[in-house]
Design a protein that fits this description.
single chain; three-stranded parallel β-sheet; 4 helices; two-stranded antiparallel ribbon; alpha/beta; 30% helix
């Protein structure tokens, strides 16, 4: 992401959630309609011809753009949630972040071998 409007509207919070982390607060992008349109336009341009059938949105900020982009691209959305939030049989994965380990789950039947999938989180621009 090198768009000046987006960079000018992205808030950075030093030492959050712990010292040494420079947190990128995307809520400042989501509240600006121009920024939302720019992000959607850029993502659509990247993925429009990839044959996507599903977009996995990672809880919770990943749900926002994943849903909007899925609407533009005509594909489904799968929610990757924190443990214990989904009612059916799930698969889970743990991963390391710069400030700890996290785990996400999604329904076992959410994706099949014929799907072409994009995984989207809030900072994947």
């Amino acid at each position: 992401m090198n768009n000046k409007v987006l960079l000018d509207n992205l808030r950075s919070i030093p030492d959050f959630p712990k010292k040494g982390i420079n947190f990128r607060d995307v809520t400042t992008l989501y509240k600006n309609a121009e920024c939302v349109q720019i992000m959607l336009d850029e993502l659509e341009a990247i993925y429009k011809d990839k044959g996507l059938t599903k977009i996995v949105g990672i809880e919770s900020r990943g749900f926002i753009m994943a849903s909007a982009l899925a609407g533009r691209l005509g594909c489904g959305i799968v929610m990757a949630r924190k443990p214990g939030k989904l009612p059916a049989t799930v698969i889970k994965e743990s991963f390391s972040k710069e400030y700890g380990v996290d785990t996400i789950e999604m329904h076992l039947d959410a994706i099949d071998e014929n799907d072409v999938v994009l995984i989207h989180d809030d900072l994947c621009l």
